Amino acid sequence: MAGSVGGEGRVTVVRLLQRWPGRYGLVAYTTSGAYGETALVGYVPVPGVADLSLMDVAARHEPALMYGSTGAEGFAEACWLISVGWSARTVPKPGTLELPHAAWTMDVDRTIDLGVVMYGHTRLHVGRFTLTDPDQMARARALLKADPGTQ
């Protein structure tokens, strides 16, 4: 599924190391569907920071070693990305931004149907994630500015 989706609800934003030794981006995690069966993990665009290919970032972590494969292309990478978002929400590290009520849109680059339940989800949308409220977007982008040496 390519296109755009949107919604409202709880959003978790966290810094993500995209390239060693210190190149960071921002990742947002939320869910959709009646029971949250669809995970949405997207990079938050930040001026001056290159857009992230989250599937490439995931692939560099060799997720098939942990998650194996169901035969679906992108399965292990999708599981790794869902784990990043789910973990950021369930065990937030310092600097995690929790927005209990946020409107958002996502330009979907890719959708992966997992074929199994992983961290409570059966599907992942991955792409570019934007918070509709400019103040919330500024708060999210400020996560990178908290440590200016990491951009």
Q: What does the model show?
A:
The chain has helices at residues 54-60, 64-67, 75-90, 134-145; strands spanning 3-19, 23-32, 38-44, 97-118, 121-131. The mean pLDDT is 87. A 5-stranded mixed beta barrel has the order 1-2-3-5-4. Helix 1 (54-60) crosses helix 3 (75-90). Helices cover 26% and strands 44% of the residues. The longest helix has 16 residues, at 75-90. By secondary structure, the protein is an alpha+beta fold.
Separate helix tally: 4
Largest sheet: 5 strands, mixed, barrel
- Residue share in helices? 25-40%
User: How would you describe the shape?
Assistant: globular
Name some characteristics of this structure.
single chain; 151 residues; alpha+beta; five-stranded mixed β-barrel; 4 helices; 5 strands; globular
Task: Give a summary of the structure in a few sentences.
The chain has helices at residues 54-60, 64-67, 75-90, 134-145, and strands at 3-19, 23-32, 38-44, 97-118, 121-131. By secondary structure, it is an alpha+beta fold.
